Amino acid sequence: MKNLSSLKRLASYLKPYKVGFSFVLLFTVGTVIFNGLLPYVSGLPTTEVAKNLAQGQPLNFDYIKKTLVWIFIVGLGYGVSQLLAGILITNVVQSAMKDLRRDIESKINRLPVSYFDKNQQGDVLSRVTNDVDAVSGAMQQALIGIFNAVLSIAIAVGMMFYINAVMAWLAIIMIPVSLIISKIVVSKSQSHFNNMQNALGELNGYVQETMTGFSVLKVYGREKEALEGFKETNHKLQYYGFRAAFISGLMMPLVQLTAYLAYIMVAVVGGFYVMSGVIVVGQLQAFIQYIWQISQPMGNITQLSAVLQSASASAKRVFEILDEQEETQNEFNLSVPETVHGEVVFENVDFSYAPDKPLIENLNFTVKAGQTVAIVGPTGAGKTTLINLLMRFYDVSAGAIKIDGLDTKQMARSDVRSLFGMVLQDAWLYEGTIADNIRFGKLDATEYEVVDAAKTANVDHFIRTMPEGYDMLINAEGDNVSLGQKQLLTIARAVISDPKILILDEATSSVDTRLEALIQKAMDKVMENRTSFVIAHRLSTIRDADLILVMDKGSIIEQGNHLELLAKGGFYANLYNSQFSEEAE
Predict the structure, then answer these.
(1) Which residue ranges run through the membrane (predicted)?
(2) Per-residue model confidence as pLDDT tens digits over 283-316
(3) Model-level pTM?
(4) Which domains does the chain have, with CATH numbers?
């Protein structure tokens, strides 16, 4: 089916496990053969009993016992084959899904920052978890189920023709009719399955967003609005989910209806043939069982079609991530010199997020090694964008950014980023010990280096007051330490990485005055003998900067040190004096 084409790509994940999958097919064939023989051998004692009674002879118990033994052997073979096939397919599918999750995680690490700027985190998470689980469940059911069903139908049809060709032709009419019904229903329901999976991703994104900002919702009393938004997204999921399930659910009763019609025709013709002596009663009994051995697999196929449609929609979403354009890698990379001084030059830099909306045009400035550069300006001026360009989260549209004379576009992104340490406004900690969070900046750091970095960041005393000290666990939300303490820990993380160039992005904007002084003192230590870029709204914190760049609408409108800019009486002076007046009030 064209709609299920995304599932074909999953075959590549099964190739490494083709030996195990071959045994799955082998045992599935055994299951189907035993299942196909079961009605026939089950009819043998019935035929013998009917024959003995018709001829007025005593029951042939020896023959009946033998046939019962054969029924037991065939039934046991069926059960064992089915069990082994189930165990092996589970192992094959879960191994394939492990590889798929590994590829997704690897791909995510190669995606540019712009991808996460454009997509909800909750939706990305839904693709990695819910969609992969849907694919996993479908493969586990369908790989055996469909092969089993098709083979069962083939064997049942063969046995029908072995018993009586006319009755067989009457019975197998239901196969093409069932396929036509399935094709029509699938074509109507697939779009609803696609929309359902997209709505599920949207719902996960909405929940993740509201849970992250739950305290803000409570503060501003926006619970009702948040609930209404959830209801709207949830209703969309219910709308598409109901239609997908309802339309796909029509297949089973319609297919069963064709089976009942075939059953009626075979019962009438078969009864006539028994009375005419064309077939014996045991063969009629077996034939009717074969009808159900066709009907049941056809029903299984129709049930699996719903699972496959859902999995197809999920697989499409998963492969959308795997097909995303990765960060471009340079063909000829300049290697990082052994000694990096930290001089940074922006030469005629142009940049825009959208081609028709230029943000930065012809930006030029030079930062000497060891200087502290402050970047100030109103919201949307391009401060954070400038840092993103510096780190090669985005590439410049024109011009060049050079570090010690080397164009960063000619260097590997990982090499460029290895030169930087960052302390962001949103302090991020992960679930683990305090020591592990500090060591994140240098994974092979010794205990002494961890403590030394904490002392430099003025956070050692706080850590030692905690019950378990450096072994204290930071929870998943990172809310069992204060915002200021988290900020100090991120500074310690930057210290331990020993960066050549330091970036401080609004690092003190969300803390009180006492903690601001403590963080500022820590940052001063870290910035010693390092080229540092500081983005700050509080202009009082950057008075001692060697160079202040004043940005507005993507351009540098003023530059100089604090006193020089105040003396000019321009944009910076007005901005500084307005903040000073607010603080005085």
Answers:
(1) 21-41, 68-93, 142-162, 168-186
(2) 777 777 777 777 777 767 766 776 777 778 788 8
(3) 0.64
(4) 2-109+116-322 (1.20.1560.10), 344-584 (3.40.50.300)
